[in-house]
């Protein structure tokens, strides 16, 4: 997605990324495998390699209703999709214990809230919701909340009144920004479509299926989330995608019809300069026109941005104004990078020090403006006394790599590898513990060359010392810091 010619968001389509088994929003049946009273949580098997995490707070206020509904459907009871003949049980206590609610082996419907990130598995919740174009349908809830981005008070009240009147009694909703000033007929159709999806969830629950709900396609999801009043044009170089988008607009946003431009003879990424921007913003060091540059680093706990003045001289008169200009440009680029790479969690920015409190306040205010269009929930703290700005940004999936680079298979992107001497030392100690005279070992070609070089070679020295003969076999698929004895 471009804003004023700048790339601000990139999303992978099917076939362009390895992806994950279940994407955010998917509703699946999980089986409780382990209860953890110490952290008041449970680990569930949802069919993925790693167990999913469910905290007691993520059960939600209507988990008891969902468990009862699942039980009745498993018994083939005829429950209406509008829940008109369903009577909710007493809710679980707000601050209860996971062991009082769940037990090992229990099956329950859960929704993916966060996709796997680094070593962490899925995070799931029992607060089920069905996203639609103008609202998010929430079974068992009775409230209707309106997006804070709809600021006009009369419109907020209108939407609350309209949607409350269209929803069945045991359903609530979160009204999305796209619903602003839309006619009742479109909103009614949107609610009907969401209720149909919920009916499908109940039907699959009754049949005992594993996946209860998932998006039809990623493209459909992106269009639903991104197409709003600010979007003026959708450009594609794929006739197939052009047809899909035109049809989607005809059904979901008739007032946006005709905004699709298909350039099937062109490479849109090159024509619009997208590739150049992606490659520039995906580097560890990003330079900009004021002469400054940004250095990005990632740790297990946080992302760090260091702003430097570079070739720009800040030692002479007017330093404060020069530093402010560099910091403002860096802040704009960092806000763009956060959205582009979907960086979440804790973010720390080390700006160039400024003496004037007024300039520090200006930088904080401008950073809030730069991130105003960011749809991910975020909090921006003012600059600390050390010139550090702390940002927290909602994270639901792994940060994206948008450039055409890949991690080195030897060092995994760290730029450092285990010294060959350490690898050789490990081989020696394992050889000393092994029985027998003749031993074959698979090693990286570099390690083999190290073992055989010199007169006498290390292998010969070990023969004299250990009375054991080592036959190193080179294997290019073996990492430089690994080895395997062949029995």
What does this structure look like?
The chain is of the alpha+beta class. It contains 13 helices and 23 strands. It has helices at 63-74, 98-101, 153-166, 184-207, 218-226, 239-252, 268-271, 274-281, 319-340, 357-370, 420-433, 445-452, 458-466, and strands spanning 2-3, 6-7, 27-36, 41-45, 52-55, 107-114, 123-125, 130-131, 135-139, 144-146, 171-175, 211-213, 234-236, 260-262, 285-287, 293-298, 302-308, 345-350, 378-380, 388-393, 438-443, 469-474, 483-486. The strands form six sheets. Strands 3, 4, 5, 6, 7 and 12 form a six-stranded antiparallel beta sheet that branches. Strands 15-16-17-18-20-19 form a six-stranded mixed beta sheet, covered by helices on one side. A hairpin with a 7-residue loop joins strand 19 (378-380) and strand 20 (388-393). Helix 1 packs across helix 4 (184-207) and helix 9 (319-340) packs parallel to helix 10 (357-370). The longest helix is centred in the middle third of the chain and has 24 residues, at 184-207. It is globular.
List the topology elements.
Blueprint lengths: L1 E2 L2 E2 L19 E10 L4 E5 L6 E4 L7 H12 L23 H4 L5 E8 L8 E3 L4 E2 L3 E5 L4 E3 L6 H14 L4 E5 L8 H24 L3 E3 L4 H9 L7 E3 L2 H14 L7 E3 L5 H4 L2 H8 L3 E3 L5 E6 L3 E7 L10 H22 L4 E6 L6 H14 L7 E3 L7 E6 L26 H14 L4 E6 L1 H8 L5 H9 L2 E6 L8 E4 L1
Parallel strand pairs: 10-11, 13-14, 17-18, 21-22
Antiparallel strand pairs: 1-2, 3-4, 3-6, 3-12, 4-5, 6-7, 8-9, 9-11, 15-16, 16-17, 18-20, 19-20, 21-23
């Amino acid at each position: 997605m471009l804003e004023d010619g700048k790339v601000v968001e990139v999303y992978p389509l099917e076939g362009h990324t390895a992806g994950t088994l279940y994407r955010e929003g998917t509703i699946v049946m999980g089986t409780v495998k382990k209860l953890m009273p110490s952290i008041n949580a449970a680990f569930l098997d949802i069919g993925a390699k790693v167990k999913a995490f469910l905290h007691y707070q993520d059960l939600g206020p209507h988990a008891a209703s969902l468990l009862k509904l699942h039980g009745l459907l498993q018994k083939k009871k005829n429950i209406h999709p509008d829940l008109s003949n369903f009577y909710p049980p007493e809710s679980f206590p707000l601050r209860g214990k996971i062991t009082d609610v769940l037990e090992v082996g229990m099956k329950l419907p859960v929704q993916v809230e966060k996709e796997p990130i680094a070593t962490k598995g899925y995070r799931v919740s029992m607060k089920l919701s069905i996203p639609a174009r103008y609202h998010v349908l929430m079974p068992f809830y009775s409230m209707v909340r309106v997006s804070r981005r709809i600021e006009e008070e009369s419109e907020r009240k209108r939407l609350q009144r309209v949607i409350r009147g269209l929803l069945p009694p045991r359903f609530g909703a979160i009204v999305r920004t796209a619903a602003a000033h839309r006619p009742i007929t479109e909103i009614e159709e949107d609610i009907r479509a969401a209720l149909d999806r919920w009916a499908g969830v109940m039907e699959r629950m009754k049949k005992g299926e594993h996946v209860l709900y998932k998006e039809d396609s990623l493209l459909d999801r992106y269009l639903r989330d991104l197409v709003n009043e600010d979007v003026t044009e959708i450009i594609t170089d794929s006739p197939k995608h052009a047809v899909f988008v035109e049809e989607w607009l005809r059904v979901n946003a008739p007032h946006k019809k005709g905004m699709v431009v298909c350039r099937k003879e062109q490479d849109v990424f090159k024509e619009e300069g997208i590739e150049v921007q992606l490659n520039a913003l995906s580097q560890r060091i990003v330079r900009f026109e004021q002469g400054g540059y940004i250095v990005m680093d990632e740790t297990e706990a946080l992302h760090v941005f260091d702003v430097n003045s570079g070739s720009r001289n800040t030692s002479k008169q007017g330093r404060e104004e020069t530093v402010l200009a560099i910091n403002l440009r860096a802040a704009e680029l960092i806000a763009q990078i956060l959205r582009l790479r979907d960086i979440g969690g804790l973010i720390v920015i080390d700006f160039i020090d400024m003496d004037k409190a007024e300039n520090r306040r200006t930088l904080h205010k401008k950073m809030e403006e730069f991130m105003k269009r960011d749809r991910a929930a975020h909090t921006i703290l003012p600059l600390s006394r050390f010139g550090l700005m702390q940002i927290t940004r909602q994270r639901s999936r792994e940060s994206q790599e948008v450039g055409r680079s890949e991690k080195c298979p030897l060092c995994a992107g760290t730029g450092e590898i285990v010294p060959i001497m350490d690898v050789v030392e490990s081989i020696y100690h394992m050889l000393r513990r092994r029985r027998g005279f003749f031993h074959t070992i698979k090693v990286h070609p570099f390690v083999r060359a190290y073992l055989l070089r010199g007169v006498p070679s290390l292998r010969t020295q070990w023969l004299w010392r250990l009375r054991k003969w080592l036959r190193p076999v080179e294997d290019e698929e073996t990492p430089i810091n690994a080895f395997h004895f062949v029995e």
